[in-house]
Amino acid sequence: MPHQSGPLPRQIHRLPGSSRPCRESMRRNAGRPSPGASLSSSVPTSRWNPVRGAARLSARDLALIASFAALIAALGLPGSLYLFGGAVPITLQTMGIMLAASLLGARRGALAVLVLLVLVAAGLPLLSGGRGGLAVFAGPTAGYVIGFLPGAFVTGWLVDRLLPRYSVGWGLLANVVGGIGVVYLIGVPVLQAVTGIGWGKALVTGAVVFLPGDAVKAIVATVVAAGVHRGYPAVHEVREPALNNSTVG
User: Fold this and answer.
1) pTM higher than 0.85
2) Of 6, 37, 54, 156, most Cβ neighbours within 10 A?
3) What is the DSSP letter of 175?
4) Among candidates 199, 95, 206, 203, which has minimal Cα distance to 155?
């Protein structure tokens, strides 16, 4: 008798006079793999899908995004202060941007800022001084308002690099680079273009005079974020590492 290679076929017993297989035979074959099935299908895969996971938001994520968008708006209630007759006001909302990014990470922090900007564009007076509407995105401060979004993303991205351990030094650096540097990088050129002032005056009135206050806000946001991460580490988004799917021969 020749040697038979490969998996043995399933034996299906049928009742006499019937074309249906008997139940006992079906129960015996229920747990057996089908002929030619690849063993690689039994290898566990990661639950994190980099494509679907990037777009999937839980109810908890949506609640956090809405809460921090409301926090940023609330920080504009004390109003704004214009120094030396400048066109750019001092506001506490930049600290809200740093807090949202430091606590929620790049994706959810940027989405919280995006929600705020969409509501402002719709006409809600959520910016400092009760400003709102599309005119905000065409004025001298448009670059700073638009810069909130990439600033929050960069801050959150830098914080993500170190988690689950949050370092005060690294968190402060992330707030300075994203919450101050990126916002200034977009805000100052737009201020110069809209007002027509020289670059030197734009740098002084649009950046230098705000550095001391923004530095204090970055320190406060870092200290608050460190305390929240220490007491409630689950607030930040955790992604599972991908597993290497290797085929078992």
Assistant:
1) no
2) 156
3) I
4) 95
What's the average model confidence in pLDDT over 217-244?
Answer: 77
Inter-helix orientation angle 142-160/183-195, to 10°: 170
pLDDT of residue 19: 53
CA distance 11 to 152: 63
For residue 171, which of 221, 96, 236 has the smallest C-alpha distance?
A: 221
| Sheet strands (E) in the chain | 81-82, 89-90
Q: In the predicted model, is pLDDT for residue 49 greater than 60? A: no
CA distances from residue 75 to 28, 110, 227 in whole angstroms, order as listed? 67, 17, 20
Residues facing 127 on adjacent strands? 131
Alpha-carbon distance 141 to 145, whole Å?
6
User: 152, 108 in Cβ contact below 8 A?
Assistant: no
Q: Which amino acid is at 64?
A: L
Phi, psi (rounded to 5 degrees) for 127: -85, 165
Maximal C-alpha separation, the chain:
101
pLDDT (0 to 100) of residue 121: 97
Q: Report which of residues 128 and 71 the model is more confident about.
A: 71
Q: Is the pLDDT of residue 244 over 70?
A: no
- Residue 182: how many CB atoms within 10 A of its CB? 20
Closest CA to 114 of 103, 126, 130: 126
- Please report the domains of the chain, with CATH numbers, ordered by start residue: 59-235 (1.10.1760.20)
